[in-house]
Specification:
12 helices; 8-stranded parallel beta barrel; 47% helix; globular; 8 strands; alpha/beta; 294 residues
């Protein structure tokens, strides 16, 4: 059984003005997401600024998310690292904190070989019982998890069940699904490609877009499941300009700006992330108004 189907939000981590995690606001945002139809909360990932958290903060945020979600939807915890030992430790602590699954990014900067990636993921998976979604985003990590490697891990390691596919390469995604006999639990990691990837067998999306429009992203996925392709196409097309604006600068700079403009008060970004440029703020505001969320 899949960890989730539909729209999982890659949720931001709200910060206070002194850059401490704002747990009160995190609970509020989680409640808003669930009320809006989000099918899963994905915590402490790229959008959640996990790379600037201490290990203690990382686990504290996961634990808080589990507590705030109250089993209403699954919680998938980011537990990847460029160090295998650190990823093992984070994964074990996320399991102890009560997460329902793990999202494990490829080890960034090191540029591991494909055999190295197999060893990395196998060691992490053997250290926990939770189902694992691998996360392939070579544009950020410098490391591409090839279809043959995904298939080897999926077929040989019991609790490696899925892939967040963020290469932007539909042909690679199609090959990955083919090599796993269509059984891999794939999620789009690109908000602009939700429907194309669902057409080749993906179960949904791990979405930045959902932070500002959870109902639409949920409905896109649900419409596809219901066979209402026209509605799914309409929502995907409706979101394209907004998605482009949300990625006009490195994620999560634009989405935090958007949420703050919507009155969600999710606070600042931790360095080295910085405030959005004035020119892109103007473009984002215009697109948000056009979309109907501002």
């Amino acid at each position: 059984m899949a960890i989730f189907k539909g729209a999982g939000v890659a949720i931001v981590t709200p910060m206070k003005e002194n850059f401490e995690v704002n747990y009160e606001k995190l609970e509020e945002v989680i409640d808003q997401q669930i009320a809006g139809g989000t099918d899963a909360i994905v915590i402490a990932g790229t959008t959640g600024e996990a790379s600037t958290m201490t290990e203690k903060e990382h686990i504290d945020v996961i634990r808080a998310c589990v507590e705030f979600t109250k089993h209403r939807v699954p919680v998938v915890a980011g537990s990847g690292s460029n160090c295998t030992r650190t990823a093992v430790s984070l994964s074990q602590e996320a399991q102890e904190a009560g997460a329902d699954g793990l999202l494990v990014v490829t080890p960034y900067y090191n540029k591991a070989t494909q055999p190295g990636l197999i060893a990395h993921y196998t060691q992490i998976a053997e250290s926990v019982k939770l189902p694992i979604i691998m996360y392939n985003v070579p544009g950020r990590t410098g490391c591409n998890l090839l279809p043959e490697t995904v298939a080897a891990l999926f077929k040989n390691v019991e609790n490696i069940v899925g892939l967040k596919e963020a290469t932007g390469n539909v042909a690679q995604a199609s090959k990955t699904m083919d090599l796993t006999d269509g059984k891999l639990e794939m999620y789009s990691g690109e908000d602009g490609l939700i429907l194309p990837l669902m057409a080749i067998g993906a179960l949904g999306v791990i979405s930045v877009w959902s932070n500002v429009a959870p109902g639409d992203v949920h409905q896109l996925c649900q419409s596809f499941f219901d066979g209402d392709l026209e509605t799914a196409r309409r929502i995907q097309r409706k979101g394209l300009r907004l998605v482009d604006a949300l990625f006009s600068e490195v994620n999560p700079i634009p989405v935090k700006e958007a949420m703050n403009r919507m009155g969600m008060d999710v606070g600042p970004l931790r360095a080295p992330l910085c405030a959005m440029s004035e020119a892109n703020k103007v473009k984002l505001e215009a697109v948000m108004k056009e979309y109907g969320i501002l």
